[in-house]
Every structure is written in C-alpha cells, then in structure tokens.
C-alpha cells in the first residue's frame, strides 16, 4: 500500500495558470501547501499558493531548489521541457509520470499509443514534407486536417484541407514544424471523460460531459451529455484502459468524437481539464481535489454527479457579465484573478446548476 502524504506537506505545481490556481485551492482544503513554478510574472495561482518560484524552465538551479522544497511534483500543462523533468525527477517524484507526458506531448506518439491499445482514432499519417503529404492525402483523402505534432492547443497549429489543392498552403501553415494529417471525423457530438487513477490503481471517472467550442476554444460543457447509456459506459471504460496502460496517477482528460455507434478518441491531456470544471459544483469531490488526492497517495473520493450542470467559460469581455451572473442564485462563479482582459483569454468560468 502507498503511504499517504501527511497534511502539512508541500505539493509542487509546474505552471501557475488557472488550473494551478484551482489545484492550489483544492490542496489547501486538504491541509497541503503548494509551491508554484512559473516563468511568467504574477501567475493566477500565485494568489493562493504558499510559495512561487519565478524562473524559466532552463534555470537548473531554480528547478533544483524548487524540487528540494516540495514533497511531490505535479503540473498543469504538458509541454514541460524534458531537460527540466530530468532535473526535477532526480529529486522528487513527478505525477502523472514521464510516460504519460511523452505520449501526450506529440500527436503522432499519442495516436499511435491509442491505436495500439485498440481504440478508434481518426486515420492519421506522419507528415515530413510535400511528398509524404501527397501520399497521405491519397490514402486518408479529404476533407482532412494537418496539425503540428507538438504545441498545438485550442485549435492552434492546425490547417484544414478541403481538397488536395489546399496541400501547399496547409504545409506552409505548419512553418516547417513536424505534422500529422488526420482524416476529418464527421461527428455528431464532442464529449470528454475526466478520469482519475490513484497510486494503488483505483480508478474513478466522472460522467462524460458534452463540449461546444467557439473559435477553437471550449465554450460550454454540459452534463449529462446527450449520449446513449451504452456509449457512456464505453467512454468511461476506454478512459480506464488508457489510465491503466500508462500506470497513471492523477486526473486525465480524454476528448472524444461521437459518431453513430462509435467513440473516436481525439486527444488525451495528462492533467486536470477545462471540460472537467463542472465537477466543482456537480460532484462532492471535484477534479482538482481528486488530482491532489491521487498525487498525494490518498484514496480517491466519490466522483458521482449529484446535479446537472452547464459550465460556461468566461472569455475576454465575458467578464462584463459577471455583475449580472453574480445576482443569479443558480450560478457558481469561478474567477481567475487575471488583471488584464484580452480577447480569447480565459478569465473565469461559471457553473450553472440546472437541477438538483
Ligand atoms: P484538437 O486541438 O485536436 O483538440 O482540435 C480542436 C478541435 O478541432 C476539436 O475539438 C474538433 O472540434 C476539431 N477537430 C480536431 N480534429 C478533428 C478531426 N480529425 N475531425 C474533425 N474535427 C476535428
């Protein structure tokens, strides 16, 4: 059995954005301290953390001092440089593990891992140049999407091909970055499953949520999703398989496309996930507490849903609606304390309780 981290211990979190902030709040409710490592100034997580290190991921001395000051390390984003992980892991354990990061940092590695597990993905091919793209278009066809293998998020680093005529432009859009071509999935719904696995291998999955994106950014998540019971079960089971295969510890977001009778895995995120924010007001134990429990070697909590919820992201000028939302008794506001409002910037979210 795992020895649970005692309260009063310090959890190190790489990344100081809103996810790090909400992880910090959950950790403090369990009696832990958090130490944030973040290159940018004034991180949202800094307001609610015990300590903050402001340094780049290339600063070996800062990484060593950070790792030595904590009892376990986790992260809020997956693009952490390997060199930084090497330094940190020599001093304290990192959860979720390196394999989860390796698999999810690169769309080609990720899709290959999922396909090897026997899970359905969009057809995909490795693209290195114009010739491999032309060959892939022959087999996968159009419409299709060319995506950078790394560093893509919120729809960035993607180029759609309506026909083979778009190949040249799509390749130029990648600006020389390694890419994959994905067949376009004609889905009826996008859903995600947020699931957690403890250090003892216990797995708990939240009900799948239905996601709507605007301009490539998540706009709303609605639970329950309009998903037949059979596919709800499939979604939860496939998330469990992914967690077990990676010997995973922590919370993971699994994004799925729903097609008639089948679930297709789009991508996995080895961290708490925006589409899991509804759990803060729909469940006794939210995704942030579940993640902290897992990385601290505690048992997982009860992730069953007690309410129907619509989570809406407050992006850019949506902040102007906060005074009105604050008057609505069914709305739980979660604001990130960001001082500067920019178009497309996630400033907060609201969980609207639809039924109890
Ligand atoms: P991603 O960055 O892979 O999550 O893609 C962002 C959004 O683009 C997804 O949420 C989908 O709405 C859409 N998308 C991505 N890949 C595909 C695909 N293969 N087929 C259809 N739509 C896709």
Account of the 3D structure:
This protein is α+β, with helices and mostly antiparallel strands and 356 residues long. It has three domains: 10-94, Rossmann fold, CATH 3.40.50; 123-183, ATP-grasp fold, A domain (Dna Ligase, domain 1, 2-Layer Sandwich); 189-355, ATP-grasp fold, B domain (D-amino Acid Aminotransferase, Chain A, domain 1, 2-Layer Sandwich), CATH 3.30.470. 28% of the residues lie in helices and 29% in strands. It has helices spanning 18-29, 60-68, 82-89, 98-104, 107-116, 130-140, 167-173, 229-245, 279-282, 287-295, 322-327, and strands at 10-14, 33-38, 51-54, 72-75, 124-127, 144-148, 158-161, 179-183, 189-197, 203-205, 209-214, 217-223, 250-259, 262-269, 308-315, 331-335, 346-355. The strands form three sheets. Strands 9, 10, 11, 12, 13, 14, 15, 16 and 17 form a nine-stranded antiparallel beta sheet that branches. A four-stranded parallel beta sheet has the order 3-2-1-4, with helices on both faces. Helix 1 crosses helix 10 (287-295) and helix 2 runs parallel beside helix 3. It is globular. The structure holds adenosine monophosphate.
């Amino acid at each position: 059995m795992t020895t649970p981290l005692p309260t009063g211990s310090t959890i190190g979190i790489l990344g100081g954005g809103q996810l790090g902030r909400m992880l910090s709040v959950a950790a403090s409710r369990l009696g832990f301290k958090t130490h944030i490592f973040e290159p940018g100034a004034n991180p949202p997580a800094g307001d609610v953390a015990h300590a903050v290190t402001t340094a780049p991921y290339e600063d070996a001395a800062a990484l060593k001092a950070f790792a030595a000051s904590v009892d376990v390390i986790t992260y809020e984003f997956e693009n952490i440089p390997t060199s930084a992980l090497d330094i940190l892991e020599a001093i304290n354990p990192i959860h979720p593990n390196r394999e989860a990061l390796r698999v999810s940092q690169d769309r080609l590695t990720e899709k290959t891992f999922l396909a090897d597990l026997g899970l359905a993905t969009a057809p995909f091919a490795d693209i290195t140049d114009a010739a491999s793209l032309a060959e892939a278009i022959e087999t996968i066809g159009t419409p299709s999407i060319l995506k950078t293998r790394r560093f893509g998020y919120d729809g960035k680093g993607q180029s759609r091909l309506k026909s083979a005529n778009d190949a040249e432009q799509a390749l130029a859009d990648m600006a020389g970055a390694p890419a994959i071509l994905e067949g376009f999935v004609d889905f009826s719904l996008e859903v995600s499953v947020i699931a957690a696995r403890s250090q003892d291998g216990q797995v708990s999955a939240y009900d799948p949520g239905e996601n709507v994106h605007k301009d490539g950014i998540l706009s709303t998540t609605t639970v329950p999703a309009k998903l037949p019971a059979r596919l709800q079960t499939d979604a939860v089971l496939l998330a469990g398989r992914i967690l077990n295969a990676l010997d995973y510890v922590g919370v993971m977001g699994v994004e799925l496309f729903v097609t008639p009778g089948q679930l297709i895995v789009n991508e996995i995120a080895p961290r708490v996930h925006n589409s899991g924010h509804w759990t803060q007001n729909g469940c006794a134990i939210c995704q942030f507490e579940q993640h902290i429990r897992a990385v601290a070697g505690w048992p997982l909590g009860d992730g069953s849903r007690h309410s129907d919820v619509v989570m809406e992201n407050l992006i850019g000028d949506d902040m102007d609606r906060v005074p009105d939302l604050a008057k609505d008794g069914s709305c739980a506001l979660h604001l990130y304390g960001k001082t500067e409002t920019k178009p497309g910037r996630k400033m907060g979210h609201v969980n609207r309780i639809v039924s109890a």
